[in-house]
Each structure stands twice: as structure tokens, then as C-alpha cells.
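Q: Convert this sequence to C-alpha cells.
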Amino acid sequence: MGNSYAGQLRTTRFEEVLHNSIEASLRSNTIVPRPVFSQLYLETEQSLAPDGRTENDDEDDEDGSESNSPPIPYQMKPPPEGCCTTDGFCQAGKDLRLSSLASDPLDVPTGFMLVGIKSPSIPDNLLVCAVDRRFLPDERGRNALLGFLGNCMGCGEKGFRYFTEFSNHINLKLSTQPKKQKHLKYHLYRNNQGILVKGAPICWRGNDFRLRQMRSSLVEGHPTSDEQPPNLPLTHPPHAPGSHTGSHAEPRVVDVARTLINGNHAVPSTAHPPLQQSGSGRPSVTGPNANAGPPKKRHKGWSPDSSSNSLPESTVKSPPSSLALSTLSVSSVITNGARSETVTLQSSSQRSSTPLSPPELSVIVPDQLLHTCKLQPVIFKGHGPLPQLTGNVSEVLVSSLLQSCYLSSQTLPRVYQHYGPSPIQPLSTEMQILLTVYYLVQLGPEQVPLIEDLEQILMRSWRESHLSEIRQFQQAQTPGTQGRHFGRETPSALPALPGLPQHLSLPPQSQQPLTPSQLPWLAQLAASSCGEGVVVLGEEVRSLAQGLQKTFCRLMEGLLENTNYVVIIVVSPGQETQSCVVVTGKHQCRALAESMFSPTEGLKEISHQLSTGVAQELIHYLGQDGDMDSLLDSSSVDRNEASPLSSTQDLAEEKSLKNTQSPKNSQSPKDSSTQCAKEALSPKEAASSPKDSCSEYCVEWREVRPIQLAVARKLLSHVCAIADSSTQNLDLGSFDRISFLILVPPSEVAFQQTVLHLWSSGVLRELGSVEQECVSQREAERYVVKMDQRAQARIDSLIQEAHSNSYTLYILVHDHAHWDISNSSCSSSDSGLGLVDQLLNSRQLKDATNILILHVTSFPFALQTQCTRISPYNEIHWPSAFSNDVDLYHEKTRYFGVSELLESTRSGSSLPLMRYDSSFESMASTLEERFPKLHSAVIRTIVLIQHYCVALMTASGRISSSHNLHKHTSVETMEIVQSLLTAAHQCPAHHGHMVLLRIPSLALAVWAHRRLSRVRKQLGLEESFEIILGNPSQALIIGRIFTDQIKTWLKIQDPDWVPHTYLELEALPCILILSGAEPLGESLPRSLKYCDLRVISCSYLHRTTLEQELGLAAYLVKAESRPPHNPGPGSDLIESDAEKLSSTDNEEEEGQDNGDSPPPCSQPVPSCPDSGAVDPPPTQSTTSPNIQKGTSDTIQSPSKSQTQPQPQPSSESFSYPRIAPLHRNQPQLQSYPQAQSTSQLQSHPQNQIQSFSQANSQTYTQTLTQQQPLSQMQIPSKSTSSDSSSPRASSPHLSCSWARGVSRPPSVLLPRALNDIITASDSSGLPRFSSFLPHMSVAWASSFRPLLSKMMTCTEQSLYYRQWTVPRSYHMDSSNRTEGRSDNFHPRRLLLSGPPQVGKTGAYLHFLGILSRMLIRLMEVDIYDEEDINCSAQAEEVQFHPPNAPWPNTEVMKAIPFDYTIHDAKYDDISTVYCPGFKPSADGKHRNPVRQEDVYLRRRTSRIKLTKYAAYNTYHHCEQCHQYLGFNPRYQIYESTLHAFTFTHLLLGEDIQLYFIIPKSKEHYFSFSQPGGQLESMRLPLTSEWSPDCIKSPIFTPTTGRHEHGLFNLYHAMDGASHLHILVVKEYEMAVYKKYWPNHIMLVLPTIFNGAGIGAAHFLIKELSYHNLELERSRRLEGGGPVGDVWPFIILADDSCVMWNAVDLDGRSGPVEHAVSLKQVLQHMEACPDLAHYGLCGIRKWSSRGFTVNKQWEPFSRGHLHDFLLLNVDRSQNVQYDQNRFTCHDIDFTLRLHSAGLLVCRFNSFSVMKKQIAIGGYRTFIIKTKMTDVPTSVGPSQYICAPDSKHLFLATPAQLLLEKYLQHTSQKLFPLSTKNYTHPVLSVDCYLNLGPEVTVCFVSSRPHSFNISTTGLLFSGLLLCFADAFVTSGFLKKFTFLKGATLCVISADRSSLRQTVGRLELEEEWRFRLSDEFQTANAKEDRPLFFLTGKHI
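A:
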């Protein structure tokens, strides 16, 4: 294949096979390696040549090569004669330069890509060519076939198969051999302008020679830190075991091929033949080499038939169990959700192109290595190949994790690789080795190396060596691309390295690079500082094999007894430096070996050791010194026990240890309890009498705390944000109810706990799921599902239900969401993992638009990766309870979590709450060395249970003190047991506390439970405390005697009640043995006092693992028992840092870290029992009385606000008894006051530590003597309810230990290794473990990531993990990779995160409740519900129409008198219109009395549920409305056109130009001169036309300020009927209305009406409609149709009309209204036979009190009409709306219409409901001044002024000022008219509101008009507004006025005002003064109105 570097192929047969099989090889589904085609990939692993170089090194030697030999000059083939040789042109003379071809159309064949070639002769330009994409790498630098296939884009010549030939054709003129990797530089693409431009660089394998050397040294691949959790101790976990059979039975090891994620280079994993077991009984394997294929040309001796050879590797740690030896796997697997790195055995002969290793390079592992040295050495592969191991290889472990760390730290991010001619280079091999030696030297003798620490050291060294380059690079970046805290990092501000002391300076790198010859002596110099701890073998060894052989020899000779690490460095001239590290420390080897197990495999190994009896030797060993069983037997005899445990029973108990694999029958604690209960009355039963009840015991039952309510509302706001977004992923308006399902881990206790919370929360009753209050809790179990195999059916059922109930919103709550994140395709069905992925990530669930998923977790890190499905905007973080020391939520309790635990460790005044037990650690460490084959968890558990047993024997007093049992326990354990036994005696009700014993292995937990139960029984303590086995798969089992006691405390009457949760064990003295690989969300009661974690695993150092174990101790303490907030350093990031709010929360507290003040301790002396717990022995008589007094002063009683538990069974669930607010911003528990620091107190910590480390040096009694004064000390409380003089305070034995315990958090005991890690922090105060890998299922994207910042908020942490972590292949999000980042997020998925035990369950349950209420509220609207006003009781009631008449009769309607009185309640503040028939009430109060509920509410409303015929605003988007709202697939959204429409009107005196915005989908309603031409008219139907699905009348809706809230969606109201709806908007609002209503027709008012009122809108609508009617008649006439047959009606509808009703007269209790569609209302009205005779029709306004039984029902009436009008524009042609009016325009128009003789009819059988909309509308006007243009408080008296005066002008229309002035000041203007109904003000030709005190009598001056009879009526005033020619002096003389009556004449200017006075001869009867002339407060340019007042003579 040309110069594809495969050598000269001897036969064409191979080339033919090669070319013809490429496609078949790429498409092959099998992953079994093919020797021929595996070498076709550039990125497969490269075999090593004998000199240590890779076979492909010759193809990668570039200018940067470190080879000292000069490059071989390359002679190019001379070009043919006559061809072109110009640079940038091909030999055919065609231009290839990018600058020339950028705009040319290029023919690129299918499968080819345009590539830019870099030519050395024209560096400023690129040459364009087309290359087959198969021969180019993908974006991760992988999958490129060797060889070349390209076309010339100049001359068009195709089919260049060799890059050498092609480079000659395009005239590259190279001095070195042409290589495509070097010259094919960039992808080319066309930009938006179609120009060909340079794109991204082609991702070849990297630019650094050392990087390739490092990669080539890996035979089977490079497991990188991207795939292996870097913070595992430096090793791999072993794999699901497997083996291969090869030609040898000797076991060898290869490391598995790993994929490097996030764009780094990777190698494909290889598969293996079927697994078999070798005959020798020892597993063996032939590991196929990924590069097994034909050799290069310099390896002539290769034959396809040669035996499979590979480089010698080392052996694997095989678990001793037979199960573990069954198989070994080569590829990566999933074991219980944890990725185990593969370590495989391989045969000595291997398939490789490398010749067989010489015999002297193999290393023989000595026999009896483990037996002799008591350890199993661990070999870390470093640089270079590891020699072959032979012999006793099963006793040596090999890991490539260190090698992966080296490779990761040399893989520069692409952003640095392609930064121009950047000098940034990765660390050299020598520097990596030297830094590794530095790191190992500073490790303590008991410390285990951590890969994360070493990685940070390497990274810091790299940053410091390239400080200036990185700064230069960062300055070149745009700030917008950098993250706030982690996108860019200032190297100068780097924190101190964890584990690397500051005084230990790093070697200088910038001046002089470290040479290989300097490395050995520098490394030995560094190692010399630690003595024999680290041994460097450098100058004396010539190969790794020699160094390993020396190491093994020294081990066997015992020369490395004090050495923990041996570093082997091989430096040979002309070869690469090689290295490896051999771990020889016993403690380190054990820790590293155990960390090779995955968590599941570790538990299996423990169970195997127990079941095979391996642990018996240890048990017998522990029993030799002080025979516990014999002592117990003697104790039993002393107590005259009926059946002492015999020796046969002892044997049976020991045998039971071997049969603990099946825990199903392992629990029987209630048998012994029941037996004891039969024998005698227990003390607890005796104490259950009323006189012995405890007054301090009080359990706070379910209540939503303020912070939980805040979180619930926050959740709701996020859901609303999803619904409000334009994506339309959630339509809340379409749901009328919710349903939910809560998914919990497969823990019976967690399941019952959630059920308990759910039932007691009241959510089910609120949702209507449960009607009765007394239904059992089983009702709630339907809503909670354990995530086991049975969950599949429940989820499927929910999906089916969701599909069939589209109006129900289903909430799927995934609680404890971090538990199972395994990929379902990678998990076995029996493991139970992968179920969450299978169910929650299914396509059916994702596509269901009515299913919302809420993930709830305390540890969200694993769900925050580059491939997460949760949008960062959908994360809700638990808020802080404090801000700047201010309690934001006023909680009764405060949260005490991991941050506070860490604070207690930094207090120097007392022992911290979190600590380790040095005595226990010492004993366990000694036994670990003695029993190297036993798992440390087995040893530590057996030792711990031995401690507990001995402590029980000692504390019980049954065993004589002469036996010195204290030697076999520790002070910490003794304190725990002593406190447990004595606490119950201090309380009359025998309340005690809980001791949590965490044993992850179920088998060990079962054994511990049996052992402790047996000892308890023999000591006669069955009734003193309970021992509970917490098995996740089993229900809680409590002895009957303790169950009865709990029922007595909680006052439960149900005889069958038993506790199901740990929360219900409140105040029960017990030891809870909690098993399981990890806690599954079980909450613990507040009586928890000790959290014993001494036997948890130290192997899996991930942030999630550590925090969830520490989270067991999270606690709610009483708020009043804690001093003011005093945050300490280093507590900011733990537990997801939930004290920081998300980006939507307050973040003011970011800067608070009070590092100067010492962090207070949380508990005085956690190592002591409770106050008064131990009866003082005689030796304590010298105790200081001051201390005792100080103690008694501070004993507190519970808060008065606590409530007693209710006796109902349903109320026993204290839903959140210990879940609480926040982390850092909580006041810390204070340490001892100085006044109490006596000599005993000061000396105690030292004595305590002594007692830890030298438990045998002093008696327990002496230690207790020192402890007792401290044990009585309590935390001082500010709110103690008793003082020193109270009897209870002075007698500690009478106080309840439980009541005191709830005021302080529990103590935590940790393994020493974990304690050292957890309590460590870096120089910035950031806890060290918070920077660990967040979860075992994710990997770091790059070693070059910045460190977490101490001040990051939760949101910033989330963004950090989203940027810098990637999911592993077995993570459920690993399949969520798409090109578009925004498409990755599930639109309806939320994440709620908060610290453990803080109250998340209560928060999301409350969220479900308020979401349900909100949905109900969304289905309801506030409707104006007002009674009619001005109703006269004396009015004559005459029945004109039959009650069931469908339509009005014209003649009858003319006989009905017109009702001038206004009855609409919205007009209760305007002037009454005088009506002769109206009789106001005698007291003058003709209006409705003001109701009490109306005092604060201006208008009365009722909340009414929307019907299916409602009108909606823009927030409603159901599927049926999509097309109606503009989502028509035939038309593009927003596709509409603007059409001008002009007509002339005489009143305006000029042409009016309006604009129509007509969507394409609505153009059929209009006629145009031609398609797309001039708008001619709006089409109107004929009167004779009728269609059942059509409304004939166009609907006009004038609107302003309500683009979002206006009810313009009439789709449902019209019931799907076709209708023409036009929105009438002002010009300045046109754009926003068009945006929200793209499919609605808009009528845009002229610019001059931008400030006009509703009168102008109605005026233009009416005049436009009449003009259009004339146009349509003309169009019909031209078409030959009848002229007068065009439909003349239009509808004027308010934008707040929401629903319509019809009256049903068949109701038994009188007329009843029911909802109908607007279609039904309009079709009924349009079908009226004589409708054309009516000028105006309307309907009633709805009122809930609109009907009275005794009132006659009149179906039709004549009177004022409002809100919803059917207007006949033809008959009302001569009556116009007043275009100047702002208020009361409809009253004015109706009065003038009636006076003109037109019939007005109201259809009383229909009513309209109006929604209360507080935003916008025509009634909203702002009076503002002309100067400031801002709203000001201007009184009505300032609305007018004297003409030509200096006055504050207002920027408000003059007409509005006049109307408002008359409304508010008319009682001064018309004093005789005030409250004088019989003497109204005469208003001619118009109605103006003169205020509610004045009555107006309307008359028309038009000839032939209809007016009321005014004979004998005396008027108190006259109002002439714009009097026209019809008003004459003779007309006015018809009316009689009172003396002193007021005249008001209004005109547009002063001259017309005088003309009116003169023309009407007003001065004859009216007296005027100069001071009586006024104008509105407008500037001259704003055309003020003028008016004149006068008095009647």
C-alpha cells in the first residue's frame, strides 16, 4: 500500500486480501482479532522491537524527534518532462491553492473529504485535495486505515493509491519521506457564504515523540485514568475471573485495552477465545495481542503460523475463592456496577511480531514468597515493558494504574496541542519517575499511595514548568469561553500538593531538562531522606528483569523488612528509560490487593472466607487469651440460668459461622426475647405504668419545615419554567390532576420509610386518592416501588396509564438516584443492576409528554457528566438556612452534617466527634500481619465484635474484675457499651439511645448479630437493649417486649402494629448492625448516639462512597442548643456544598470562611458516656464539685413547643425527625468554656490518647476515673428550661438521656486510614476527599483539569463535573452521546440534590401536593361575580315574552320600555341615568350595600373551573390548538403579510389608513385584486347562508397591554367552528401581539390613535365594517348577486370574555345555567328571524346570584349592553361611537342608539363570564406630568387650570383629563345635583360621568329622536359638550331649571366656546364670570379642551 509502512509485500495475494477485505473487516460484528486486518488500524497497540522502540516509530519521526542521528535525505522522483513544477500547482498546471479554489464549485466523490495539505514551500497557504475518509482518523484520532486514496482537485485526476506518488503530483518538494500524518493537516468546509475555509486540524495521534514512545511501550493497551478510578489505591481491582488456555500452563498477565475518553487517543479492546480451565489447576491464558499481524519490513522472520508470543508480563491477583478462579476476562466488564480493570493470565508464548524474549530476561518468582514474607508484592508497571514472570506467579500482583497515570499526564489536551507553534510539552519520563520517588518518600509508614495525589503532583509540576506559556495561552483565549472557576486557572495560585510538603521543593525544570544519566542518583538522593522506607535500584541494574530478581531475592532474605517501596530505574545509552515500582510494605500490599476487588467481589470473597472456615483460626486465636466462653458459662451458672449454653451449643455456634452465606434464616432475635418475657416481668413493662412515664419524651410528628416548603416551591417554579418555555415540552394547562410513583432502592426499610412519610404527609388525601382518614398505610404502598424485578410491571403499567390518560400529569420520583446508574446492556439480569436505565431511560418514557421524572439524591455527582440527561437549568439544590449569620427559615432544628463533623476534628479544646480508635487499630494491624491471607474486613469485624462482647461482660458486672477483661477491648468500645446500658436507667420510661454498627458484609453482619445475641443472652441482658440486624432485603425484626415498649411510648392501640422503619425505634436502647454494600437511604432516629464505622472498607476512595457512609451520622440538633454561627475553614465543599445556592439563589455567603477563629467542637468529650451514665465508684469522691455543678446547670429539658404524639395509628410516622437544613452556615456546637477547663479537663485528652494506644498499661477503672468528671459535662444551652436550683437539674439520674441526646449529634468512629484522608485538607481549606473521583462509574476527562474551588456553589460544582467527568461504558448515560449538545437533555427531567437526612423526602412530597393544587388552580379562573345594581323593588313586573321563547318578537320588543338605568356593577361609581320608572330607595341608598368581603377587594370574584368551551390566553397549548395557534405544517410559522386599507370618513375629515396583518392560512377570508395583490375587502357571507360549523359574524376584539393574558384563543370556545377573529391593536404593540399570536389577523390602528381610548377603537371598527359592507355589496353586485343580502352584523367582544352559559328553564328549583360554547350562543342569535330589525343585541353578564325564585323570568329586555355585542352596522350607520371617549363610551353609544329609534335587545337566556385580568386593558391609564414623564401623584383638581396661566402641564390626553375631572369634582361643579335624583343634570346629546352622587338625564337634540318626557321636571344643571347645529336656543328653552343651577359648556377651543354661548343665547338665562373659564392642563400643542361654567338666574 505504497509507503503505508508495512514493508515490501512479497506476494500480491496478501495485498489482494488486504484491499478486498477492508469493508468486510470494518462491518464485522465479531471482535475476535484477525492477524491480518488488526494491523490495518493506525491506532492499535504497537509491538516493541528489541531495542524498546515501537515498530511504527520510523513512521512517526518528525522534526521534533530526539534521535541523535541525522535524518536520511529523501530523494524525490524527478518530475516527468514538460510538466508543471510551480509551487501550489499540480503537475498538470492546475491551481491547488485554497485561496484560489475557495469559491470554485468542486466535485467531491461520495466517501471523500476535502483536506488541506501543508506545503513547506508555501507556508501561508494550503493545497486542496480530496481524500477517502476511510484513510483519515475520526475526531478522537482513531480508525484510520493505513495507506492512502486521494484525488487531485486541480486537474481532476483520481485514484492516487500512494501518498508518495500524490505528493510528487502536487509538487510538495519534500526533503524527507512524504507522510500523510505530517502533511494532511486540516479539514476543509464551506462557511455560510459558501466559501471554502480551513477547519479543524486532523486529529492524528499527537505531536510529541515521547508520547508515542510511552504509548508504544504498552503491549495490550494503556488503561488510563479516564477509565480507571484514579483514586483507587495504586492498583487495579481484579476482574470477573477467567482464563485462557495456551501452550503453557504458566500464568502470566497482560493488561486490558482501554478506551481513552473525551477525545484522547484510544485503542480498541480485543476479545479472546472461549475460556477454559488449564489442567494444572492454575489459571492460564493466551492473551491475544492487539497488534498480532504481519511484521514490518525489518522483521523478515515473521510467519503467520508462528506461535502466539507476547511480552512477559506479571501475574494477577487471583481471589482465593474457587468462584474467583473460574474465569478471567480480557475485556472490561461490569461487576456489580463497578468497573474492574482486567488482569489476565497469559502464556509465555504469544502472538506478536516481537521475537521471543531471551531466557535471561524472564524473572522467576520464588516459591513460598507469601509464606516467608507474609505479604504479596504488588508490581506497578511504569515505563517500558515488564519482563516475563515465571515460577510462583500467583503470589505476585501486577497493576498498570501507575502506567495509566503517566500516560494520562503526558496526553496534552487538544487545546494545547494545536496552539500554534506552542512550546508546551508534557512532563518527561525522567521527571515523572523522580516525582514519583518524591511522592513515595513523603508517605507515612502506614499510608497507602493514592493515584490522585500523584496525578496532582505531576500536574502541578507541569504547570509550574510551563507557567509563562500557559498564561500566554490563556490570554489568547476569549474570556467568554472560560468558566467562572474552572475554565481557566492561574498557575501561580496553585494550592499546595496534597501529600507533598511545602518545604520539599520540586526540582527546577525551566532551566535545564533532567537527563537520563542524572535520574538514578537524583532518585537515590531523594530516597535517602527516608532511610530504608524507599529503596531505589538504579545504577546497579541494567534491566527491569535484573531489578525485579534482586528485589525478590532481598524479600526472601528479609532485607526489605523496613522497606515499603522499591523503585527500579533502568537507564541505558540509546534506549528509553524504563521503570517500575514494587510495593513491599505489608500494610500497603494488603490495601492494594484488596482494592483490586470490586465492591461486589470483595463481599463475595469475605463470604467465601467465612463459609470455608478460613476465619476459624483467627477466632480460636483470639479465644486463647482470656477464655470468654468459659467466663460466660460461669456467669450463666452464677445466675442459675435454666439452660446454660453447653459445649455442644458452643460448637454449634462456631459451626454456624460457616453457614452464613444465606442470611434468610439468620435472624431470630425475638425468640430469646419472647422466652425471657415469659419468665418474668421486664423492667420496661414495669416502667410502662403512667406514673413512670417520661415527661421529657416528645416526638415531633410530620410537619413541613420552612426550608422544605421553600424547596418544594423551588421545584414547582422549575416545573413552571419548563412549561413556560417556548419548547412546549410540558403543557401544564392541559392537565387536570396528577398521579405519581416513587421509586426507592431495594431496601425493605427504605420502602416502608417512604410509605410512612407518604401516608403521614397527607398528599394522598389531597390528591383525592384516599377518601377515608383511617385507611391503613397499605393504601400508600401502591405509590412506592422497590427497584427490583417486580418494578418492571409497575413502570409498564404507569406508561400505559399515561398513554390512556393524557389529561393526567404523572410524576416519577426516583429517590436515592445515585444508587443504580448501571447501563442495562452491560448488567446481568441476576445482579439487579441496570434496572433504572432499562425503565427510566426507555424510549416510551422519554416520549410520553405527560410524564415528569424527578431524581432525588444526596450525591448527584454521577448524574453530572458530559453525557448527562439532566439540563443544568433543571437542577434544584438544597438552599442554605443561613445567610450572613441570619436564620432565613427560623427552624427549630439545625442540620449537622459532614461539614460540621470535619469542623469538630479541627478543634483543639476537646476530642472531635469524628475520630479513630487507636487501640482497636493497633490490635487489628497486628492480626493483619499475623493472618496475611484473611481479608482485613474479616479480621477487623471479628476483633470489633470481640471488643463489644468483652465490653458487655465488663459493663454488665456479671464477670469478676480479677479477669482483667479490659485488656481485650478498647476505651471507645467500653464507653459505647457503658453508655448504652446505663442510659435507660436514667429515665423513668427507660428511654435510651441507638448504637449503629456498620458492617457492609451481610455474612459478617449475620455472624456478628448471632455472636452479640448469644453474649447478651448469657449475661441476662435480653431486656436491657435490642440487637437488630439491618438486612436491606428483609423486614425489620424486633422482639415483642421492645415492640410493646415502643407502642406504649407512642400510645399506639393497634395490637398488630410492629415497627417497620428505623425511625420508629426512637429512644429504643439498641445496637443496629447495618449491612449492605452501601446505605440505601434508610433514615436513622434522633436517638442515634454512636455511629461505629470502624470496619467499613478503605479501598474505594470516591467522594460518593465516603460521603454516604459519613452521611449516616447526619443529624438534626435543636436550634436553641447551638451558639451563633461560626464557620470554620475547610467545610465549604462537602456534601455537595449545599449551603451554597444555585445560580438562581442568593450567593452572598460565598466569601465567608472564618479561618481565624478556632472551629468549635460539637460535643464536649465524645468518648465519655452520658451525664450520670456511670454510677460513681468510690474513687471518684475527689471529683471537683465545680465540674459537677457546671454539669447540672446545663442539663436541659425539651422545648415547650414540642407536641405530644397522637394516638391514631396513622399519626405515628414522624416523617422527618432528623432531616434538616444545611451544612456550613450552621452555628457549630461550642467547645468547653474556659471556666470549666480544670486540670482534670486539660489533662484528659492526653490520658485518653494514652488509653487508646496503651490499653493494657492501665486498668479500665483508672481510665474511667479520669473520664467521669468529663462525662457529666453537657453542652451549655442558651435556652435551658431549668436552672441549677431545679430538682431535675441537680439530679442527673432523674433526667432523660434521650432528651439530652437530641441536642447533640452522634459520635463517629472511623478506620484510621479513612480518618486521615477525610480530615486532611489542602492549603486552601478544601477537604482532600472532595477532590476525589466523584463516583466509580465516571472517569476524569483529563488529568489537565483544574482543581475544585473552595468557594464553588452547588451550581458551579455541577458545571465542573459536567465539564470534567465522562461516564464509563457501564454508566447508563454513556449511550447519551449525540452531536448536538442541547439534544442530550431530557426535557422533563429534574434533579433535586441535598445533603443526607436533610428532609428531601418531605420536600418532594410537599411539592407533589402544591403541584396538584396548582393544576387545579390552573383549571380555575377568577370570574367577576357581582349582583346587578340600581334594582328598584317598586318596578312593575310585566311578562312580555313567554319564559321559553327562543327569539324576541319585534313588536313586543317595541312595547317593552327602555331601561335607562345602569345595572352593571362595574359602573357602580358613575352617574345614574335618570329613568322615570326608577324609584330609588327611600333612604337614598339605591345602590347595593358594601359587603364586608368587598372592603379590601374592589370587585367581587368567584373561582370557577374552566369548562371545555373556555377561551384561553397564550399560556394554553394543547395538541388540538397547535394548528389554530399557527403550527400548521402547511404554512411556516410567522408567515403573514401586511396589507394597507384606506377609506374616507367625514367626521375625521381625512383619509384613514389602517393595516391588516393577515397570516397565509387566513387569506381566504379576504378578497384581493389579484393573488398577493392589493387588499380590496373582507369577505362577508350572505344572510341566507347558513352552515352548522360556521359563524357568519366577524369577531373584533380591541385590546391593549394583554398580548400574553388576553383570551384570544377561541378554538375550544367555538367548538371547532370556522370563524373570523380579528385583534384590533395599537401600532406600537403590533410586533409583540404578532409574536404571541402569529396565526391571528391583526387590525392595526393608525399612529394618531396610539394614545386613544376604547372609543376610538370601537369607532374605527364600526366605520371600517360599514365601509367594508358597502364594498362587499358592490362586489356582490358586480357578481350579479342581491345587494342588500350581505350579512351586516359584527361582534364586538371584550378580551376578557372566558366562558358562556345558557339558562335551562327545566330545572326543578327554577332557572339553572349550564356552560355552552360560544358557537352555540352566536348561532342561536344569528338565527333570530327578525334580527335585521335590531340595531344592537347583547347578552347578560353572569352572576352567581343572577336568578331569584320569586322574580319573573323575562327572556328578553331593552337596556344597556356591555362587553359582548352583536352590532348591526347597516341600521346603526348614522350613530357613531365617540372616538374621543375613554370611559362610559358604551353607555353613551347605547343611549344615542336608542334615541335614534333603533331596537336594542338583550338575550337574557345567555350570559358571559368575564375573567379578572389585572394586567393591561383600556381602563388602565396613567396620569403623568409633561416634564418628568414619570407617574406622579397629581390630584383631580390639577387636571384643569385657568387659560393662559402658569400651570404644571400633564402629558395626558385632554379628553381623559376632562372625563376624570368631571367624575371626581362634579359635586363642586353641580352642588344642587348632589344626591338629588329628582333634579338631575340635563345632558344634551352625550352622556358624561359626573360621579356617583349626581344623576344625569340624557336627551337628544336630533329631530324625530326618542326622549323621555321632561314635563314638570326641574333640572339642577345643564351640560353641553361639543354642541352641534341641532342644539338651538329654542330647544334649550323647553327645559326648566332650578334657580342657581349650574351650566357647563365644553368646546375644543376658546373661540368655539364663545360662539356656542352666543349662538345659544345662554347669557339671557345664565350668569357668567371671567373666572369661570377653564381648560384642561395640557400644553397648547396637545390641544387642550376648554369649558365655561355659569349659574342660572
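The first strand starts at residue 112 and ends at 118.
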